[in-house]
Amino acid sequence: MDELKQNSDCSISLWLGKKKTMKGETIGELEELVLLTVGSLQEEAYAVAILDEIIEKTGRSMDVTAIHSVLRRLEKKGLVKSEMRGATQERGGRRKRYFTMTPAGRAVLDDNMAVRIELYQKLPKLTFFGI
Known about the structure:
The chain has about 130 residues and is of the alpha+beta class. The chain is built from five helices and four strands; from the N terminus they run H-E-E-H-H-H-E-E-H. The strands form two sheets. It has a two-stranded antiparallel ribbon with strand order 1-2. The N terminus is likely disordered.
């Protein structure tokens, strides 16, 4: 019965566009997109670079404050960690905060991908005539 409830909770979370983390929290679609981008940018993952990559890949319109908000949530959940790195003259001597994905962040992404692949493979093959 507990297994059924756990699967049901996961299905509801998936249906809502959220995946439970190991702490029982969930990540939404934008959090997942930011987390994927942090992982793909590797050593160059700071807020403006993350924003630029998301805009380029998705065509979404958003600002850097939304990215900062998501990054704070992901760090609070233990899915990313951050560090301040060297100041530059172009930034008026200010330092940048860089982000890296944690093993827990990678595990959440791996779980999300596995669920999506499993569901995608269950889709019926459709044929569209006249397209």
